[in-house]
Amino acid sequence: MSDVSVALPAYMAALTPVLNDVVAPAAAEIDRGGTYPRAAMDALGRAGLLGLISAPEVGGQGEGHRAATAVVQAVAEHCGSTAMVLMMHYAGAAVLEAFGPTGVRERIAAGDYVTTLAFSEVGSRSMFWAPMSTAVAGGDTVRLDAQKSWVTSAGQADGYVWSSMPVDAEGASTIWLVPADAANLKVGAPFDGLGLRGNSSSPMSASGVEVPASAMLGTDGGGFDVMLGVVLPYFQVMNAGFSIGTANAATAKAAAHAAATRFEHLDQSVADNPVARANVARMRIRTDGAEALLLDTLTALETGRADATLRVLEVKALASETAIDVTDLAMRVSGGAAFRKEVGVERNFRDARAASVMAPTTDTLYDFIGRIACGLPLF
Asked: Which residue among 54, 160, 328, 376 is the one 20 to 30 A from 230 at the CA level?
């Protein structure tokens, strides 16, 4: 297994005990009970990893896309729910680092503040860049009204990076920081889904939520640029890391099962069967291919390469579909045993399905990539 964290030993060293002592032991119960990974997030905070991309001047580690992706990928190999919560925290933290108040940035860096994105809405669904929710100015405050369809860490985060239509300006959207204790902010039914069962992804509503005008992140009407310029690169590469981590875990479990499980009457293991070995090989090749594109995407972002936008769009599409295919093969290789919880493959199988339908969905990304290939505008 290759590792995007090879050049980042300091925080990967800090992450290792968190994975071994907190994340991995709790993963099965988090999935079984749909429990939010609070202990893991607290441990990540104590290890300085919630502030991984926070600037040094506020106490953070000052890292970027590659480091965040490495950490999310490593966590995903053990617990998909924890990885998704952390991924959305980093996506929100990136916006707050660019536009947020110093006090909140310091709390993130100190590991004392979890954030997330609140972009997807009932009215525009996976087209997160086109919110239908409103923001109305009234003196020094702004009234927010919204029906958010999916918010990871709903009811658990300390603050939400929130989108709405602009107050007065032209443009598609405006971004706000909404505190968790805002009056008239409500969380919908608890999440009870197929996979990622501990990520507390629920609907949220705002009915006359008032925030100070200073809660605006960026400019009025400038939300689209924040989404595409700040959020999307982080979201895409971390989501790809999540999928690759999930695929890595499924590949390792399936290979171990094939090597250890025997046909006693033949004195052979499952791995002695060339079909089983070929399927494991397909899993390894597909996963490594997706990771190669991820590493290239990170390099493209870091060096400002001309194809960086294309790579950012491609990497989530390839990685999410790869995870689906790889975990399907893991179920085949592991046979009937894969349906038992203790093998762990079925959890990877379920968790892997999420990334493909997370906005921007794979089908939307195919459209964007096709537009670039055909010389058409994205929007």
From this structure: 376
The percent helix, strand, coil of the chain (3-state, each to 5) is 55, 15, 30
CB distance 26 to 65 below 8 Å? no
| Per-residue pLDDT at 7 | 52
Query: Would you state the pLDDT for residue 379?
Result: 86
State the Cα–Cα distance between residues 172 and 224, nearest whole angstrom: 6
In a domain, 3, yes or no: no
Q: Which residues contact 52 (CB under 8 A, 6 or more apart)?
A: 11, 60, 61, 63, 67, 68, 71, 90
Which 8-state DSSP code applies to residue 273? Answer: S
Does residue 192 sit in helix, strand or coil?
A: coil
**Cα–Cα distances in angstroms (integers) from residue 366 to residues 184, 285, 356, 378, in the given order:** 38, 22, 11, 11
Q: Are residues 84 and 24 in the same domain?
A: yes
- Torsion sign, CA atoms 85, 90, 91, 93: positive
Cα(210)–Cα(227) distance, integer angstroms:
23
Which residues are registered as beta bridge partners of 202? 151
**201 inside domain:** yes
Based on the domain organization, do 148 and 94 belong to the same domain?
no
CB distance 297 to 314 below 8 Å:
yes
Number of domains in the chain: 3
**Cis ω for the linkage preceding 233 (within 30 of 0):** no
- Examine the domain organization and report whether 234 and 132 are in the same domain: no
Same domain, yes or no, for 178 and 267? no
Given 78, 113, 148, which residue is the final one in a domain? Answer: 113
In one-letter notation, the amino acid at residue 89 is H
pLDDT confidence of residue 342: 83
Domain span at residue 362 reads 224-373
> Mean pLDDT, to the nearest integer, of 324-342?
94
